Amino acid sequence: MKNGLEDVVAAETQLSDVDGEAGRLIIRGVSLDDLVADSTYERTATLLLDGLMPEALDEASLTRRLGEARADIFRHVEAADATILALPPVDAMRALLARLPDGEGSPVAIRLMAASAVFLPAVLRLQKGRAPIAPDQKLSQSADMLQMLNGTPPSGEQTSALDAYLVTISDHGLNASTFASRVIASTQAGLTSSVLAAISALKGPLHGGAPGPVLDMLDAIGQAENAETWLGNALDKGERLMGFGHRIYRVRDPRADALKNALKPLTATGQVDSARVALAEAVEGAALSILKRRKPDRPLDVNVEFYTALLLETLGFPREAFTGVFAIGRTVGWIAHAREQALQGRLIRPRSVYVGPLPKAA
Ligand code: COA
Asked: Is 239 annotated as catalytic?
């Protein structure tokens, strides 16, 4: 028995491979760097779903159908009542998604991908007392999300940065939420159920719930010269540094650099707070050196959440919504895994070792 199922192989997949020793991520045969350099959300979604849907999906038809689905799903925003809006954004988004019908085919898959992108910006606006903005189906998913969030057309650099983020986090091996999605798919419950289970797993702070706390940490540190002391005090109290460490990566998480690079065109065009980026880089450097000194036996490096925090903040997402944006990007990965699992057709049903008391002998 391995606690946390560490190193246990529980699925065969053609979708992605995470090499934790080399710090390499491959998504359907393409390395992350190449994918981010040459891709949009729609192109990556087409790649991930290739061969897993009953009919072939090309990029143009997926783009068109996603736009139509966003326009159609907007009417469901009306269901966001006071009870739903009192929830944290990712929970409100999950509640709205839970109203959608289950099923296996591409209409259900595309509706889920579109719905998550529509519901989160709408919830964020409604929670601030502002009217939600209707989708524009002619835009790409990333551009439309930013317009629905901020109420103004995004710049090309902003759209590319969100694309880079959504592509970077689209899939990542058998992480906890993807495993949850596959477990549900193996029961043939349907894609909506798989995605709902996956969101529920993702929202935990040990999985996708860390980028908000990364910003809290940057705020608390405030200035580069405070970093060393602040981080040392946090470790003295037994706290973990948010945005560092990973179950699989023993070197730098390749997604961290993909996101750091995605910030560069925004920095070059003055669309990012350069003091904030400088602070983050100083905190990163200080954290790496203090972790090396304090935990010499455990290689701990930057993970995806650190630069996610900076990128999403720059694009206008409030920190309490970061987990929800992660869910929007990962939904296509969850769906691809759920379909792959369903096509393999075997119910996931591991065993446990009973360590409780035995009944008294008669
Ligand atoms: N800061 C400080 N110490 C850390 C750490 C961090 N971020 N991550 C791991 N460690 C330390 C642990 O305290 C432990 O030290 P110990 O052996 O002296 O007690 C050691 O490294 C191993 O920790 P373990 O809990 O076995 O690692 P894990 O593989 O279960 O942890 C994470 C993976 C992601 C849960 C963990 O690194 C973490 O909590 N990171 C912060 C949250 C975060 O950024 N999450 C997003 C992940 S993408």
From this structure: no
Please name the residues in contact with 28: beta carbons below 8 A apart, sequence gap of 6 or more.
14, 15, 16, 47, 48, 50
Residue 9, both tokens: 């192989």
Check if 295 has its Cβ closer than 6 Å to any atom of ligand 1. yes
CB 246 within 8 A of CB 152: no
Q: What is the pTM of this model?
A: 0.94
Q: Encode pLDDT of 57-70 as tens digits.
A: 999 999 999 999 99
Chain-centre distance for alpha carbon 249: 17
Query: pLDDT tens across 135-172, in order?
Result: 999 999 999 999 999 999 999 999 999 999 999 999 99
- Structural domains in the chain, CATH included, are 38-206+318-344 (1.10.580.10), 211-314 (1.10.230.10)
**Would the CB of 28 count as within 6 Å of ligand 1?**
no
Protein residue with its CA nearest to atom 1 in ligand 1 = 240
Residue identified by tokens 């946090």 is: 234
Contact 90, 199 (CB under 8 A): yes
Residue 246 annotated to the active site: yes
